[in-house]
Amino acid sequence: MKPLIFIYPHDDVFQDVKQESSLLAERINDKEGNSLFESIVFDEEYLTLFRKLFSDARSYVTPALSAYIKEIPAETEFYEARDFTKARNYELILAMPDDFNFHLAKPADAKIRQFLIAYILYRWLETKLPEQAASYLARADKILSEVKNLLDNRINPIRRYHGYW
Length: 165
Hints:
Elements: E1 2-8, H1 10-25, H2 37-40, H3 47-64, E2 90-96, H4 105-125, H5 130-151, E3 159-160, E4 163-164
Antiparallel strand pairs: 1-2, 3-4
Helix pairs in contact: 1-4, 3-4, 4-5
């Protein structure tokens, strides 16, 4: 088994969410043609909410990849949602089999980041713009499935039922 370590810094994910919401907000107007930019952009005013949604997104990724999660002995830590000084980043340590195709680590890393952003935006938009929120949810579900497929890829294909894969 070889470890595969992914780290998603809180601030980087927040900036990505802010940028994605800004790009969406530039294209959205209400029925009278007024810009909804101020109400759609996920900015620093909502850091506490971001922290909660970031935690929620992590709670979907972790079980989905649980077959590979490596247990790291650690001391007990207390987690407080409003405390931005501790446990800010999402660190994911996977124990990958020796025949895992490690060339797929970068694509898996990118897909996990995309999932975090899509899921957070889904939750942010679900009451503001339900149609756009549904597209972000569909994107998040598809990306999580793609991550699982990437991590299940092996150098030597597994022979099943007289065929491969």
